[in-house]
Design a protein that fits this description.
There is one protein chain. By secondary structure, this protein is an alpha+beta fold. It has a domain of about 120 residues: Beta Polymerase, domain 2, CATH 3.30.460. Helix content is about 50%, strand content about 10%. It has 19 helices and 11 strands. Its cofactor is Mg(2+). This is Polynucleotide adenylyltransferase. GO terms for molecular function: ATP binding; CCA tRNA nucleotidyltransferase activity; metal ion binding; RNA binding.
């Protein structure tokens, strides 16, 4: 059932807004549809069966489609950060008032249920010009918009989009103002995680670096331009056959694998990263360190053992194959040696040694010795 003939919406002034309007006109997949309702109250929405879900402003779920319907609202700056706003929603707030509070003009378009466009801020012209431009000077009131703008460019850069110079100026002003420091870690990571799933994730970090935001939010990445450029070049060089849901973790790991343990740990703590992201980044860093040691000193069994111990391979054998695939991107012969060494070492199982009578500390020592011997044998005789 369309919104135009929905009995729950009968008599209400509703408009499709935001991403659904933008992406439909770009020919981009539309994943979610959001609606704004003008001229009514929260009480009336609930009387019609809509379920309230918004904590900071009145948002309701449609009783059948479960799409989001928000009352038209305005926002007034009242403090620091992206939460420092007073929200006002009432029947007097117009659609134009609601659209004016949005970040970019391409996100400030609306359309009626019948598809008629409402575009008071020139979003369609900017969409056709492939331009990301702020709606109003109020852009600087929300520091999160710096990250959102960078993320949208990471999504659309391949279509020829650019950030308007006047918007870049406001982003630089925001980065220099100290407002970014008031963003909570979860919001910074949420935007960064979304950016890492976009088609051109490197653009996100390039934009943040150019406006000064990266030095504020992720200084470990911003310290050396050459290191950052190399890290961004790795974002599309991932192991083969990883699952789609693991792509973001792998991109993050590749981004930070060059950092020292302390730097990487500090960054992880600041952003409050999920455990899986931290662990994979550590595994990638240790794999990188192995490759560098091998390039300098050659390959030996002790190095392979340290690497396997470091990535907890004996308990988490599923970690090994993707990391070997990672090695193969730059050192295919080394990857072949590691694969053979792992295959032979993994065949040495504790239960076999227990059957021989080993227990306790002696069991662990003998297990490590035999695994090392298997690895040394594989490296000495690759045809084994």
């Amino acid at each position: 059932m369309s919104a135009s003939d929905d009995r729950h919406l009968e008599g209400l002034e509703v408009y499709r807004v935001g991403g659904a309007v933008r992406d439909a006109r770009l020919g981009w997949p539309v994943k979610d549809t959001d609606w704004v309702v003008v001229g009514t109250t929260a009480e009336e929405m609930q009387r019609r069966g809509f379920k309230p879900v918004g904590r900071d402003f009145p948002v309701f779920l449609h009783p059948v489609s479960h799409e989001e319907f928000a009352l038209a609202r305005t926002e007034r700056k009242s403090g620091h950060g992206y939460t420092g706003f007073v929200v006002h929603a009432s029947p007097e707030v117009t659609l134009e008032d609601d659209l004016a509070r949005r970040d970019l003009t391409i996100n400030a378009m609306a359309e009626t249920p019948e598809g008629a466009l409402v575009d008071p801020y020139g979003g369609l012209a900017d969409l056709e010009a492939r331009r990301l431009r702020h709606v109003s000077p109020a852009f600087v009131e929300d520091p999160l918009r710096v990250l959102r703008t960078a993320r949208f460019l990471a999504r659309y850069a391949g279509l020829g989009f650019v950030i308007a110079e006047e918007t870049r100026t406001l982003m630089r002003s925001l980065a220099a103002s100290g407002e970014l420091e008031h963003l909570v870690a979860e919001r910074v990571w949420t935007e960064t995680e979304k950016a890492l799933s976009e088609p051109w994730p490197e653009v996100y970090f390039q934009v943040l670096a150019a406006c000064g935001a990266l030095a504020v939010l992720m200084p470990e990445l911003a310290e050396d331009d050459a290191d950052l450029d190399a890290a961004l070049g790795r974002l599309h060089r991932l192991p083969e056959d990883i699952e789609a849901e693991a792509q973001v973790r792998w991109r993050w790991a590749r981004l930070v694998e060059h950092l020292g343990d302390d730097e990487r740990g500090t960054l992880s703590e600041r952003l409050r990263l999920p455990r899986a992201h931290r662990e994979l980044a550590t595994q990638a860093a240790r794999t990188r360190a192995l490759c560098r040691r091998v390039a300098t000193n050659g390959l030996c069994g002790a190095q392979v053992m340290r690497w396997l111990d470091g990535i907890d391979a004996w308990r988490r054998g599923d970690r090994v194959a993707p990391l070997i695939s990672l090695v193969s991107l730059d050192a295919p012969s080394l990857a072949e040696d590691l694969a053979l060494a792992w295959r032979l070492a993994a065949q040495i199982l504790p239960k076999a040694l227990v059957a021989e009578g080993y227990q306790g500390r002696e069991l662990g020592e003998e297990l490590a010795r035999r695994r090392w011997e298997a690895i040394e044998g594989a490296l000495a005789d690759p045809g084994a």
